[in-house]
Design brief:
- This protein is of the alpha+beta class and 376 residues long.
- Among the domains are: 180 residues, no CATH class; 71 residues, no CATH class.
- It is 35% helix and 16% strand.
- Strands 1, 4, 5, 6, 7 and 8 form a 6-stranded mixed β-sheet that branches.
- Helix 6 crosses helix 9.
- The chain is elongated and about 95 Å long.
- 33% of the residues are buried.
- It binds iron/sulfur cluster (SF4).
- Iron/sulfur cluster (SF4) binds next to helix 7 and helix 8.
- Iron/sulfur cluster binds next to helix 7 and helix 8.
Length: 376
Amino acid sequence: MHLNLAYRWFCRLGLDGSVPDHSTFSKNRHGRFRESDLLRRLFESVLQRCIDEGLVGGEGFAVDASLIQADASDRTRVPGAAGPPADAAGRAVEEYLAVLDDAAFGAATEVTPKFIAPADPATRWTAAHRGPAFFAYSANYLVDTDNAIIVDVEATTAIRQAEVLAAKRMVERSLEGFDLYPAKLIGDTAYGTAEMLNWLVNEHGIEPHIPVFDKSQHADGTFSRDDFAYDHKRDCYICPAGKQLRQRQKIYRLPRPLVDRNGMMRYRASKLDCHNCSLKPQCCPNAPARKIPRSIHEGARDLARDIAKTEAYRTSRCQRKKVEMLFAHLKRILRLDRLRLRGPNGARDEFHLAATAQNLRKLAILVPAAPPMPAG
Ligand code: SF4
């Protein structure tokens, strides 16, 4: 700014105006404007402009998360079980302590991380696509599928549970803040948990264009749950031999709850049926009778499975690429493959600035510029 007139003009400084000290930026970011949530408001005002220009359809949203490397060296890492060193101090450490109970950071999982970065303990030691592990935060984007405008952005720790929570927070914020009520949400398997699908279908009436997260497939050649048909009317499964599997056939002295603490119900075949069945070696070779677990949210999972067979779902698969392309642009063109700032607030600031820049770029491309004012 001392040397470049264009920078002076951009900052509205005259030729002899004094240039602020370089530390003003960090002082403003960490102190003066922290409480005002300035960058969030900047992002929202640009989004509002996109909505006003008719660039946001609001019919379909896509959600995804991408790992962004943190500004933390893996050479100084310490074992996670030991926790941050007692002498670790600084703003990033204070922010780490402040988010320990936040479900998007410290409370996202009870699993102890393998390593901790003393310089930025809120980062997570993780790996993408079986590559080498590194310290990272997750950038979460909620994108409108019409023009790939970013409708919301959130920074979380790099773990699936936190990313699912971020998706919920972003959908709720877009409903409350901008009255955007999407008919469908597109996402990958990470968002296909029973609880998330139930939240979308039964609490918000949003169609899940999401593959169901399902670990029921058997790799050993025995029948998987797909081989059993659920009969809604009679509330039972019908096995390949045509027998019924019902909830609880045993009688206990003290009645036990039908739903366990993970929200699962058990449907059991009769021991007599299985004992006399010629299909038993393909069904339950090591158990007296077959049992099938069913989530209390299975209705929402069934709806997601039905949607996955439609033509609209195939279109959604292509639309999901829009959010992936935004992450590729974020890393390759905006060069945000590694954060410059530390702590959850640093990640949040950088992700908001980047998402704002990406939306401004879309505005510049899609909205025709006003004709120049006639001279004189
Ligand atoms: S083993 Fe039992 S559950 Fe399996 S197919 Fe035979 S009767 Fe049905």
